[in-house]
Amino acid sequence: MNERSNLIHRLIENVDSRASYIKAKLGVLVPSQIRSLRLQAEMPRQSDLAKAAGLHQSRISMFETPGAANMTIETLSRMAAAFKVGLRVEFVSFNEMLTWENGFSQDSFRVTPINEDYEFQNPEIREAEQEFETGIEVGDAAVIGASAANVVEIRHGRAATQSYAAAMDSRSVAAGGM
């Protein structure tokens, strides 16, 4: 068996191997995210994040060092709050975990903070975009795609693009609104 086959066999057969594998991946990827978010959030020093999160600078240093610290959900929540972002913890397949690891780049990792999160601040826009993306019919038009700026729809067999605001107005009129 080659090395990869041996690893897969150990992961399938042994709970301790799976736990170690998961911990190793998280021990690299989470610290990298923390450092990336700190630098993006105009917190050039670890002490800036420590103050914002109510933690000691030495803990931030450990959290940014791969494999150096075990973080609790409470600690991760405090850091997410300091960065003004959400935190999602989810169970995934090993393939998804590997894909996450292989696709992660600290340089391109971006999370929109709440004060810039237009869709969170305006849920009606997000809900309308989701309806448009599913091809909901509005009167005699079927909307086939949408973004925050434009809506593409089919009217009488012709594609038309209009501003998002205009689409929302026509949707409101079609639904009997103002």
Could you give a quick summary of the protein structure above?
This protein has helices spanning 3-13, 15-40, 46-53, 57-64, 73-83, 94-103, 118-121, 123-133, 164-174; strands spanning 137-138, 141-146, 150-155, 158-163.
How would you describe this structure to a colleague?
- It is a single chain.
- It is flat and about 55 Å long.
- About 8% of the residues have low confidence.
- It has 2 domains: 110 residues, lambda repressor-like DNA-binding domains (434 Repressor (Amino-terminal Domain)); 55 residues, no CATH class.
- The longest helix is centred in the N-terminal third of the chain and has 26 residues.
- Strands 1-2-3-4 form a 4-stranded antiparallel beta sheet.
- It has 178 residues and is an alpha+beta fold.
- It starts with a helix and ends with a helix.
- It is built from 9 helices and 4 strands, in the order ααααααααββββα.
Named CATH topology of the largest domain: 434 Repressor (Amino-terminal Domain)
**Name of the CATH class of the largest domain:** Mainly Alpha
Radius of gyration: 23 Å
Main sheet summary? 4 strands, antiparallel
Low-confidence stretches: 151-164
What is the beta-strand fraction? 5-15%
SSE string, helices as H and strands as E: HHHHHHHHEEEEH
Helix content: 55-70%
Number of strands: 4
Distance between the terminal alpha carbons, to the nearest Å? 69 Å
Number of domains: 2
Order of strands, widest sheet = 1-2-3-4
Helix segment count? 9
CATH architecture field of the largest domain: Orthogonal Bundle
Structural class: alpha+beta
